[in-house]
Amino acid sequence: MNTVYTLDIVEVLEQDVRLPVPTEVLRPGGDVETIEGIQRVVEQDFPPFEPGAEYLLFLYWNENPGRYHVSSGSAGAFRIPPRDRLYGFGPGELAKQYLGQDAGQVVSRIRELVAVRRVKQR
Fold it and tell me: Along the 122 residues of the chain, how does pLDDT read in single tens digits?
């Protein structure tokens, strides 16, 4: 079972020509109807996206079912709370490294890395 989230894109750090605005992201989990009623299934360490919340997401395109997914599950998602300090969902090194970091500074660093990568690919 999966849930499709429709996300408004604020900024794309590495352009993908297929990325529509808004775009749909598929995530495991969601509400399923059982004999006992509706049961909510949630990925471990990765709560559902909240309406109006801001996130830094690393996405990849999956041809089947033709939607974006969050790269490496919870490791590819960071919430940007009101004070602009990143909160990583996953237990991995990136989540630990960027926990509490200023979102603007992290995004600037990602832009730099993307620019360097583009130069190397030429």
Answer: 889 999 888 888 876 656 676 788 999 988 888 899 999 888 888 899 999 999 999 888 888 888 889 988 888 899 998 888 999 988 888 888 888 999 989 888 888 888 887 777 76
Instruction: Report the phi/psi class of residue 30: left, alpha or beta, with left for phi > 0 and alpha for psi in -120 to 50.
Output: left
Question: CB of 103 within 8 A of CB of 80?
Answer: yes
* 68 beta partners: 25, 61
Range of the domain at 116: 2-121
Provide CB contacts within 8 A for 80, sequence distance 6+: 53, 54, 55, 56, 86, 87, 103
Give this prediction's pTM: 0.82
Question: How many independent structural domains does the chain possess?
Answer: 1
